[in-house]
Amino acid sequence: MSYEVPQYVHLLITISYSAFLVVLGYLAGFLTKRFIVYVLSRVGFDEWFKKFAIGKAILRSGYSSSEFFGLVSSWIIYLTSVLLALGLGTSNLGINWLSESIYAIVYVYVVGFVKTFLIIITGFILTDAFIGYIYKSSELRSEVRLLTPVAEYLRIMIYLAVVMFALEQGGLSIHSLNILLMPVIWGLTIAMILIILAQIVQQVIRR
What we know:
The protein is mainly α. The protein has one domain. Helix content is 87%, strand content 0%. It has 7 helices and no strands. The chain has helices spanning 7-42, 45-49, 53-60, 65-92, 96-137, 141-169, 175-206. The longest helix has 42 residues, at 96-137. The radius of gyration is 25 Å and the shape is elongated. The termini are far apart.
């Protein structure tokens, strides 16, 4: 004779599994944050990262770079564990359409955010390094003054390209964003040209 588990027992087991997964995710996120903060602070990452524009922005927000990356990593783990717990619970309860939607959210949005975040951080670092090299290649003060608007224009354009590429790789459509950014790009281009022309005119007048 087969014994059928009462529905309330099945519900309690499902809740227990989900709660255990949430607790496990919290512990994993907490330990991951502590580990990242410890390692990055030990290897001098904070001092190195604050040389870049994004590192300075993080520092102004009240966090060190190691704390910021540790915090982001922990919250990604927290969110993922909660979503997976909900997906597991709804799947065990037979609500398959909801569990599939939750798993899709994890795959599309959480994984997409991680990819977008990593691409943006890496792209911004490489961009700042490239712009810094441009500044260092100029020795004369007059060249630096003329080069500054061009270099900063390039920085903004590359930033925008990195963000758009990251969003696309993260699974988001950027067609509407392209349309919105076109006037901004043209405005920045015109402003950069006017600034360069104004500086050239000033140099000619001074001579």
